[in-house]
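Before relying on records like the one below, remember that each one covers exactly one chain. Contacts with other chains, cofactors or solvent are not represented anywhere in the record.
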Amino acid sequence: MKNIFYTLCITTFGSISAFSQVGINTSTPQKTLHVDGSLQITNEFNVGGSGSAAGSAGSSGDLLFSQGSGAAPKWSSLANSNVSGVLYKIDYVKGTSPVNVAQGRTTAVPGITYTLTVPSTVKSQTVAINFIGYAPKNSAGGDNSQGVFELHLDGTKVTSAYSAVANDTGNGTMQNLPIPTTLIYQDTFTPGTYTFTVYYTSWAGTVTLNKVPTEYNGYNKDTESMLSRMQLFIFNN
């Protein structure tokens, strides 16, 4: 009986070694292991690795993505995958400290700077930016102010929008109320690091960015109402 068992083992493993392909429920295996039927895994599933090292089991929540013929698949989170159209994340920044901008001067809006890092795990990312800014006059009275908000990418202007304030009412209600300015921008970026910064240039008069409107009648201690804000929608491609 033992001789029969040894003979079966030698025959089976000899066939595996000779043909280097194993078929389960098939006599014509197409790969090293060919299963013609269902497969159940009750523990971790490893991909990659080598003949002497275990592959990766991925992290909780990861998905398995193909890397094409002849390459092992890889684990990746959906956010870090190269699936087109996937929303990677939404980010938001807002103004911080107030700053005065005199006529003819250009100043970065405090707090409105964002560094985008496109990971090497994606082909590219598309970024859609919405910005709203306020530039009220520095003090009551005098001429109305005028200027422009500019969005810069790595030090180069990519878009801009005109900014102004409303006329003084002179009747005790809010004066020098800024007209909100909106910037909209979209572009696609390959893996790397990019910095977005919003600047304000005063064409006429002096304005205060990120102003806390304590001098306005009816002010209710709202310290956020005139802060500039920027929201970024980032998609993988």
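The first helix runs from residue 2 to 19.
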